[in-house]
């Protein structure tokens, strides 16, 4: 039997309530076409306004958003893509379908985000794109990354699956580079009833291509479009259909397209959830604050973050145990586990997954990402559905366990030796 925890690691990232049930009931009772697109357009409009981007296209998952974003790169044999290894596999998985060389870029030890210095060193004349993740909801150092990418003409894809609700110097992830990909899976900061995603773009041509791909149209190079059809004497009235004009007057089909459009109930719930986003993220921030209050009193642990004044999306609550300071991560985690606090390690380094090792990737390629994952990372439960009692218990049990770790012997909760102030 699976062990049950008093404070389990959350399966769910967002909470659904009466309002969501209300819009669903109205929608179903209305008899409207649930593939019609009215709610989808409304959700996309709200998302564009929230982010401040010209184009936002909803799709059926974050994975599909990334697949389409990567499709837009027109990758050819021998092209290179730089990517973070510290992520969920969907960020890089679509690259397995292309004859490209992937260069995994190491991360910074305090943020687990792409290391701008290492990024710069991996660029070659074949580099087409970089895929980065705002890890756990903490925005990457875009002021360092973007000038490097621009200088080399590299497309920057932001995987924003963790970063909805975060802010980077007054701008939002998904609006910081070329293409943003979001997930509304149940585990994320908002959800569109279990699955869903969004692609955000600045470039109109790319947005049109993405729109065709997601809605069963061919992504193709169109010739001077359909000029002749209306004029042709042989044209039947049905030939005036715009689809006919398009599909019969294009060359160089890049991709056959698919149906990845978000259904109306999902989109309707997305609009409600987006309106609640700030409240959901501030609840996450309060929980994170309670844990940080405990951690900052101990040496041997480090917070997830940098000196930058950014707003963290708090999708994950991550901190680091430092073995050099005598805090052994695995022992810490098993002691928390014994006290009923479940921990999950997030995101095994991508370059060490079997499918990437089969492509020649190996241990030692990204030493920081490896060290942080194998030795130092800890994630605590942090989601807006947690009760105050659960949050207090995680904080006090963490205090207890850290007290034991610092002294090496079990001591009573709340009396742990506090060794260090931590400032940020
Ligand atoms: C969840 C997640 C995805 C994939 O999103 P789905 O909607 O589950 O397909 C991609 N990247 C990261 C970093 C994620 O956490």
UniProtKB/TrEMBL annotation:
Cofactor(s) it depends on: pyridoxal 5'-phosphate
Top EC class for this record: transferase
MF (Gene Ontology): transaminase activity
EC number: 2.6.1.-
Keywords assigned by UniProt, alphabetized: Aminotransferase, Pyridoxal phosphate, Transferase
Superkingdom of source: Bacteria
Entries under InterPro entries matching the protein: DegT/StrS_aminotransferase (IPR000653), PyrdxlP-dep_Trfase (IPR015424), PyrdxlP-dep_Trfase_major (IPR015421), PyrdxlP-dep_Trfase_small (IPR015422)
Family from the record: Belongs to the DegT/DnrJ/EryC1 family. L-glutamine:2-deoxy-scyllo-inosose/scyllo-inosose aminotransferase subfamily.
Name the UniProt record assigns to this protein: DegT/DnrJ/EryC1/StrS family aminotransferase
Organism classification: Bacteria, Bacillati, Actinomycetota, Actinomycetes, Kitasatosporales
């Amino acid at each position: 039997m699976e062990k049950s925890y008093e404070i389990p690691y959350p399966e769910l990232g967002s909470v659904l309530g009466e309002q969501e049930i209300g819009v669903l009931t109205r929608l179903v009772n209305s008899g409207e076409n649930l593939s019609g697109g009215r709610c989808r357009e409304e959700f996309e409009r709200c998302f564009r306004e929230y982010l401040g981007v010209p184009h936002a296209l909803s799709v059926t998952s974050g994975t599909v958003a990334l697949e389409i974003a990567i499709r837009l790169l027109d990758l050819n044999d021998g092209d290179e893509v730089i990517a973070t290894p510290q992520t969920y596999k969907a960020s890089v998985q679509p690259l397995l379908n292309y004859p490209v060389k992937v260069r995994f870029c190491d991360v910074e030890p305090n943020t687990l985000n792409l290391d701008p210095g290492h990024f710069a060193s991996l660029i070659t004349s074949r580099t087409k794109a970089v895929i980065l993740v705002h890890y756990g909801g903490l925005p990457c150092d875009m002021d360092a990354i973007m000038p490097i990418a621009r200088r080399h003409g590299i497309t920057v894809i932001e995987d924003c699956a963790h970063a909805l609700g975060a802010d980077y110097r007054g701008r939002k992830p998904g609006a910081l580079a070329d293409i943003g990909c979001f997930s509304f899976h149940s585990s994320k900061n908002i959800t569109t009833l279990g699955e869903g995603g969004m692609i955000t773009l600045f470039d109109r041509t790319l947005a049109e291509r993405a729109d065709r791909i997601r809605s069963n149209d061919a992504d193709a190079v169109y010739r001077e479009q359909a000029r002749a059809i209306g004029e042709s004497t042989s044209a039947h009235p049905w030939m005036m259909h715009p689809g006919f004009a398009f599909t019969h007057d294009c060359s160089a089909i890049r991709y056959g397209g698919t149906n990845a459009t978000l259904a109306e109930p999902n989109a309707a719930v997305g609009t409600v959830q987006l309106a609640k986003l700030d409240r959901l993220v501030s609840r996450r921030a309060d929980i994170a604050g309670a844990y940080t209050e405990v951690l900052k009193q101990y040496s041997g642990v480090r917070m997830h973050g940098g000196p930058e004044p950014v707003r963290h999306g708090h999708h994950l609550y991550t901190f680091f145990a430092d073995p050099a300071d005598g805090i052994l991560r695995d022992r810490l985690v098993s002691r928390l586990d014994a006290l009923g606090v479940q921990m999950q390690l997030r995101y095994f380094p991508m370059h060490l997954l079997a499918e990437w090792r089969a492509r020649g990737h190996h241990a030692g390629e990204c030493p920081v990402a490896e060290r942080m994952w194998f030795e130092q990372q800890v994630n605590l439960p942090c989601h807006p559905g947690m009760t105050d009692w659960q949050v207090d218990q995680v904080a006090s049990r963490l205090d207890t366990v850290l007290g034991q770790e610092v002294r090496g012997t079990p001591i009573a909760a709340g009396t742990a030796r506090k060794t260090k102030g931590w400032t940020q």
